[in-house]
Amino acid sequence: MADHKTTIKELMESVVQFEQKRDWQQFHSPKNLSMGLSIEAGELMEHFLWLTTEESREVIRDQEQMDAVREEIADVLNYLLMLAHTMNIDLSEAFFEKLKRNEEKYPADDYRGKFRLE
Question: Which of 16, 43, 46, 34 is CA-nearest to residue 79?
Fold first, then answer.
């Protein structure tokens, strides 16, 4: 399945089926899932620890590193989907509402090319 062919709903359904087949709902509290998400994000960051900015951009050229990064990104997404499902959050709705607030808070003309938020 590719991004351009897969919906968030399909991803969510896959995660829920995986969870239900193992009877893991009992362990998937918001606390546990948010902690798992943070741990997986930390494991993702570990692949870039001590690299310069340029070196981090070069990871894409190393297949072994890319495979490891890809796996960690998938773990992060998995936990995020489980957390959203457990808390009954519509990810698309939440994403676009937040994007709209950010567009209002950080107008492109005022923040173009700036990394520091004033």
Answer: 34
pLDDT tens sequence for the chain (118 residues): 789 999 999 999 999 999 999 999 999 999 999 999 999 999 999 999 999 999 999 999 999 999 999 999 999 999 999 999 999 999 999 999 999 999 999 999 999 998 776 6
> What is the C-alpha to C-alpha distance for residues 81 and 87, in angstroms, rounded to an integer?
10
Overall pTM > 0.85 = yes
8-111 CATH, one of 1.10.600.10, 3.30.200.210, 1.10.287.1080, 1.10.1840.10: 1.10.287.1080
Contact 106, 117 (CB under 8 A): yes
